[in-house]
Design a protein that fits this description.
Layout: H1 9-30, H2 35-55, H3 64-86
Length: about 90
């Protein structure tokens, strides 16, 4: 069954903060920074991926710290996969 999530202004801001923190932490641990916007995107995508991974094994809700940890795990996975997919690319030569 699909759950409907209501987004409130505080909820959106909280997820942006969680995504930014998780993206920054993941890029720091993985040794590559993507800038403010890139880290935010990595963190938000990581939050989604981490939610799917952790949601498969647990139920219930987590606080803000738990959300950051889950988003961090997902962001590390996203960065790892993106590195695997882009390995060997040297860029566009003109």
């Amino acid at each position: 069954m699909l759950a409907v999530v209501s987004l409130q202004p505080g909820g959106i801001i909280a997820w942006l903060v969680v995504g930014l923190i998780a993206g920054w932490l993941a890029s720091s641990v993985m040794g590559s920074g993507y800038g403010l916007l890139g880290d935010l995107i990595m963190g938000l995508v990581g939050a989604f991926i981490g939610g799917l991974i952790v949601g498969a094994f647990t139920t219930g809700t987590m606080g803000i710290v738990g959300s950051i940890i889950v988003a961090f795990i997902g962001a590390v996975v996203v960065i790892g996969v993106s590195r695997l997919l882009t390995r060997g690319r040297t860029g566009v030569r003109v």
